[in-house]
């Protein structure tokens, strides 16, 4: 493994819709494009701006607004400004279809940026595919999202990859026995559990307990007691931040003090607020660190605008907007079909989350990172090039400097 040490920052407060004012000029004297231009290129954005996952949506909109502001400050695209049309899914799968139909049919957007959660992206993707409008999800990691069709792209890595990252990490700290707790009705949670199990076992590990919960549950004592009775060395908890924090707090109260491992669904400041000291000695996979080797100018611009370093979903959504703009420039026309064709051949795009090239399934190739939670902070621990048993994801690589060793007793005695 290859390791760098940095700190991950927290989230600022988000607005909803980017709007320009006046018509200032860039330093080079090029007029700044403003989105109130009737000929503005319309880009649809849909995310959970309210509801139980509002933290994710607010992260994402901040990144999108910054990207649009920079694009328009540079004169726009194809001599027209970019206008972000924002709609709120309210963290509800049953409202996502109507939100996406409004963007496609009423707003006539050239492309879609969204959703964040897998279940809502799986609803949106067939609608975008049917209309022939490219959809770029910043954060939906389930393989079935892009498998919907050739109009669907993602900026984040896939579940197969991040489950492999965490399985590789668990084995690297000498974990032999693991328990899994997940929601079998949620595609994100169930898919990650299945892939972690396959990868962990294939690398010599043993799953000693596999327990389930349902969305909306508040009492996890029965499952946690069952897990405790099997004496695992870690618990793998692939879930979103609101559920994960509550489960870990109850786990500590039950006497489960071993590390809990998770995935990118934990990556929200709300996780720290709800989890408190209980989430110390936990680890999860993530996409971006503001103190990493990429995205320095983005980190500076984001921090200046919002007063806090960018969280991963802000960086992923910033990349989604910027790569869409790059595709439009290469297409030479603000139309959905040429844009899709241009996006499909994207190679080595200089994203703030790392260089992005789309494979034949329109998934990017990039390394994963592991974040450690300690003393109320997200701390970057290491970069991992995971070995994934299932093979829909291209092999990853990294040019990081040689790795520092992770303590052999890290799973049992956190420092």
Could you walk me through the main structural features you see in this protein, from its secondary elements to its overall organization?
By secondary structure, the chain is α/β, with parallel strands linked by helices. The protein folds into two domains: 214 residues, Response regulator (Rossmann fold, 3-Layer(aba) Sandwich), CATH 3.40.50.2300; 149 residues, Rossmann fold. It is 37% helix and 17% strand. The protein contains twelve helices and 15 strands. Strands 1-15-14-11-10-9-7-8 form an eight-stranded mixed sheet, sandwiched between helices. A five-stranded parallel sheet has the order 3-2-4-5-6, sandwiched between helices. Helix 8 links the parallel strand 9 and strand 10. Helix 8 runs parallel beside helix 9. It is elongated and about 65 Å long. The two termini are 19 Å apart.
């Amino acid at each position: 493994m290859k390791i760098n040490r940095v700190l991950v920052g927290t989230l600022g407060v988000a607005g909803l819709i980017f709007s320009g004012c006046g018509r200032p000029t860039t330093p080079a004297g090029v007029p700044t494009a403003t989105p109130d231009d009737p000929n503005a290129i319309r880009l649809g954005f849909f995310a959970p701006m309210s509801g139980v996952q509002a933290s994710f949506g607010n992260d994402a909109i901040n990144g999108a607004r910054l990207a649009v502001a920079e694009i328009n400050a540079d004169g726009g695209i194809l001599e027209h400004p970019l206008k972000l049309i924002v709609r709120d899914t309210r963290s509800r799968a049953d409202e996502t279809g109507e939100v996406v139909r409004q963007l496609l049919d009423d707003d006539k957007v050239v492309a879609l940026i969204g959703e964040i959660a897998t279940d809502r992206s799986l609803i949106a993707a067939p609608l975008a595919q049917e209309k022939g409008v490219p959809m770029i999800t910043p954060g939906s990691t389930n393989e079935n999202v892009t498998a919907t069709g050739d109009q669907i792209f993602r900026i984040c890595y896939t579940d197969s990859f991040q489950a492999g990252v965490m399985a590789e990490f668990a084995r690297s700290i000498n974990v032999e026995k693991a328990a899994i707790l997940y929601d079998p009705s949620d595609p994100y949670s169930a898919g990650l559990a299945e892939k972690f199990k396959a990868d962990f076992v294939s690398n010599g590990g043993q799953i000693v307990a596999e327990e389930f919960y349902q969305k909306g549950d508040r009492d996890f004592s029965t499952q946690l007691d069952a897990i405790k009775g099997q004496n695992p060395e870690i618990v793998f908890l692939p879930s979103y931040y609101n559920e994960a924090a509550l489960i870990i707090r109850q786990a500590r109260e039950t006497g489960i003090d071993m590390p809990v491992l998770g995935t990118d669904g934990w990556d929200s400041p709300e996780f720290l607020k709800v989890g408190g000291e209980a989430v110390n000695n936990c680890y999860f996979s993530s996409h971006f660190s503001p103190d990493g080797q990429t995205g320095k100018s983005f980190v500076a611009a984001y921090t200046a605008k919002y007063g806090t370093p960018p969280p991963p979903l802000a960086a992923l959504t910033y990349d989604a907007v910027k790569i869409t703009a790059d595709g439009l420039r290469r297409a030479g026309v603000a139309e959905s079909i040429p844009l899709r064709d241009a996006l499909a051949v994207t190679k080595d795009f200089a994203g703030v989350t790392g260089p992005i090239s789309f494979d034949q399934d329109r998934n990017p190739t990039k390394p994963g990172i592991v974040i450690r939670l300690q003393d109320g902070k997200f701390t970057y621990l290491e970069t991992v090039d995971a070995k994934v048993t299932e093979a829909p994801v291209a092999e990853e690589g990294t040019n990081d400097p040689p790795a520092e060793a992770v303590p052999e007793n890290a799973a049992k005695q956190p420092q």
